[in-house]
Amino acid sequence: MAKYEPIDMVNYYRGKICSHSDTYFQKRGNTLCTGRICNPRDLSKHPLSPEEIAVREKFAQARAAVKALTQEQIAAYKTAFASHLKSPHPKYQTLNGYIFAQEYAKLGV
Predict the structure, then answer these.
(1) At CA 93, angle to CA 89 and CA 97, rounded to 5?
(2) How many CB atoms lie within 10 A of CB 77?
(3) Portion of the chain with pLDDT greater than 70, in percent
(4) Long-range contacts of 96-104 (CB under 8 A, 24+ apart)
(5) Phi/psi at 104 (5° precision)
(6) pLDDT tens-digit profile of 25-45?
(7) 3-class DSSP state for residue 26?
(8) What mean pLDDT, rounded, does the chain reach?
(9) Beta bridge partners of 33
(10) What's the pLDDT score for residue 52?
């Protein structure tokens, strides 16, 4: 693998960097990351397993639950999130991420 120097707009590289696929950018917390998808999955050759389908369905259920929240529920989450941010090392940086994690946890393992 070649040695690289991050450019000013990118402070962190994650994963393998290759030249035969498109580059993507992603923000993780306060860090802008970039990477490339090496050998993307061909679903015609390797279809999703039942476990992967179950995970995708659970994710969709959690997103639907977040969208269906009332204003009172969102206000309660805002209060809980404010106390979460006061912890020494908060796990979630955004209210949306915090709410999604709580709704996802409600669905069970």
Answers:
(1) 125
(2) 19
(3) 79
(4) 96/66, 99/66, 99/69, 99/74, 100/62, 100/63, 100/66, 102/77, 103/62, 103/65, 103/66, 104/58, 104/59, 104/62
(5) -65, -40
(6) 777 777 777 777 777 788 999
(7) strand
(8) 85
(9) 12, 26
(10) 95
pLDDT tens, residue by residue, 57-67: 999 999 999 99
Alpha helix ranges (H) inside the chain: 50-67, 71-85, 95-106
Unique residue bearing structure tokens 């969709």: 60
CA distance 91 to 85: 8
Whether the pLDDT of residue 7 is over 80: the answer is no
Contact criterion met (CB below 8 Å) for 86 and 78: no
Tell me the three state secondary structure of residue 35: strand
Q: Which residues pair with 88 in a beta bridge?
A: none
User: Rounded CA gap, 90 and 87, in Å?
Assistant: 6
Tokens of 109: 């393992």
Q: Give the torsion sign (CA, 102, 104, 107, 109).
A: negative
